[in-house]
Amino acid sequence: MPLLRAAALFVATAILAGCAVLTADGERLALTSPEFRAYVERVFREQNRVADQFAFALEGERAAPAGVTAAEQSLLDACAALNELATARRDERHLSLRQRSTAARSAPRCERTMRASVATLDAWRAARR
Question: Quick check: pTM over 0.85?
Fold first, then answer.
């Protein structure tokens, strides 16, 4: 059985080594590359910053436009897997290879949604001035 598990892990690693994702800027990054790990970290940090911006902008707002609250919710939904990955790492909780791969692959979607959400938030802020 240990041999079978080792073989399955090898096959999964080999498959992932050949896989890549496209960033929101169109850059192709291999899932196992240091550049991809840095990219995921950057997207996680940026989306955290944007989520904070939404929280502070909407604090005390009783009548925030539906588009702004929808943009915030879209950001939270698109980045949920990435946040789960970060939380698991922080809590030293093990995620399966599939869970880690799914979370990492969600980074480009999170990044695109984050950019759209920032544009919505910025437009709302500008209109309020």
Answer: no
